[in-house]
């Protein structure tokens, strides 16, 4: 597989305080953007990956008007591997609407494909286990899971081929979503995460082939963990994840914090007012940080963090506004080895992401 060489590592400034900018109103969608948003994916079936540049050179930036439609699945969730050709969720199965925790737990744990529509606010006590071949889709703009979260898979029942979209997750007693126990082919898209006890979205324990796209993370410290612990070396060769067009809105850290995984593709995300850091690559992980917009982030990228050993990072075509310099090291496998994609101009990322990320943007 092709590896990307890193640039020489620039010095990172001392941990000076970065002023937190006031929150701005989210811009309205353009007519073209609104038309794209109205395209729906009612069954939870996978859409084709966006067509990207030819293998070998960084993909060209494109203007905001030509941005990837916000309903398109891109990244590792589209890959033909591990016995699955992409991620389809519950497509082809019965469609049900749930309004209580008991109903959600029942259908999420049933054998076979289901399209599960979450209507209104559902309070749960703990983690609800989601097993294979499920689409869990919020209805309208008010779907919410609060007090607990969703765990994809158990040690005996895999959580493969799962789609979660258009749901607000608040106040989880543990993680809001945990992708774990070797779950693979997962798409987590257009959700809103805030105020949990631990991680907002953790991917760990040999899970693989995941796309995290068009989500908003806010009012929390630990956003995204990728890799269970420094001792869980079984994650080597797994945890291939794409993070794109997410809005890290004032969250402190882990956007993501990565152990062992390669490649991890972090592209076209909007980082704003992140107090501790943006991305951390540790324990020999290989991370490509590409086409992102960092605003008021003193430490956009770390190589190694806390007690974890250094990872590898290649950064290219990012924009740093009132932010520090990224750390880089080593080489990383090129994501285009696995899938095509189109890169948006990082200068346009704040407008694109704030208009398209979060709930109520996809007409489910």
TrEMBL record:
Subcellular location: Secreted
SMART domains: Amb_all (SM00656), PbH1 (SM00710)
InterPro entries assigned: PbH1 (IPR006626), Pec_lyase (IPR002022), Pectin_lyas_fold (IPR012334), Pectin_lyase_fold/virulence (IPR011050), PEL (IPR045032)
Transmembrane regions listed in the UniProt entry: 28-50
Metal-binding found in the keyword field: no
Major subcellular site: secreted
Highest taxon, organism lineage: Bacteria
Entry keywords, A to Z: Carbohydrate metabolism, Lyase, Membrane, Polysaccharide degradation, Secreted, Transmembrane, Transmembrane helix
Pfam families per record: Pectate_lyase_4 (PF00544)
SUPFAM superfamilies: Pectin lyase-like
Domain (Pectate lyase): residue spans on this chain: 91-300
Similarity section: Belongs to the polysaccharide lyase 1 family.
Record protein name field: Pectate lyase domain-containing protein
Organism expressing this protein natively: Planomonospora alba
């Amino acid at each position: 597989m092709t590896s990307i060489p890193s640039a020489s590592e620039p010095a990172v400034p001392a941990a000076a305080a970065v002023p937190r900018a006031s929150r701005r109103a989210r811009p309205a969608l353009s007519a073209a953007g609104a038309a794209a948003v109205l395209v729906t994916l009612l069954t939870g079936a996978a859409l084709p990956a966006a067509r990207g540049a030819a293998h070998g050179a960084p993909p060209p930036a494109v203007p905001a008007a030509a941005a990837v439609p916000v309903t398109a699945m891109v990244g590792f969730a589209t890959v033909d591997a591990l016995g699955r050709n992409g991620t389809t969720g519950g497509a082809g199965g019965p469609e049900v609407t749930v309004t209580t925790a008991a109903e959600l737990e029942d259908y999420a744990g049933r054998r076979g494909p289901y399209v599960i529509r979450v209507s209104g606010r559902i309070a749960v006590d703990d983690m609800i286990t989601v097993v294979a071949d499920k689409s869990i889709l919020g209805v309208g703009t008010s779907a919410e899971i609060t007090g607990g979260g969703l765990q994809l898979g158990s040690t005996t029942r895999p959580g493969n081929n799962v789609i979660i979209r258009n749901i607000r997750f608040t106040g989880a007693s543990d993680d809001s979503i945990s992708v774990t126990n070797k779950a693979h082919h997962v798409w987590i898209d257009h959700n809103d995460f805030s105020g949990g006890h631990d991680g907002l979205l953790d991917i760990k324990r040999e899970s693989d082939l995941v796309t995290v796209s068009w989500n908003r993370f806010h009012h929390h410290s630990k956003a995204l963990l990728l890799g269970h612990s420094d001792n869980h070396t079984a994650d080597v060769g797994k945890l291939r994840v794409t993070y794109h067009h997410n809005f890290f809105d004032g969250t402190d850290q882990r956007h993501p914090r990565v152990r062992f995984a390669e490649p991890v593709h972090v592209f076209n995300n909007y980082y704003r007012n992140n107090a501790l850091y943006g991305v951390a690559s540790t324990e020999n992980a290989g991370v490509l940080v590409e086409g992102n917009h960092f605003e008021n982030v003193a430490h956009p990228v770390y190589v190694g963090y806390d007690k974890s050993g250094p990872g590898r990072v290649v950064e290219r075509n990012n924009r740093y506004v009132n932010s520090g310099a990224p750390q880089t090291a080593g080489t990383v496998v090129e994501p285009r080895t696995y899938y095509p994609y189109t890169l948006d101009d990082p200068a346009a990322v704040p407008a694109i992401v704030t208009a398209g990320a979060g709930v109520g943007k996809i007409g489910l």
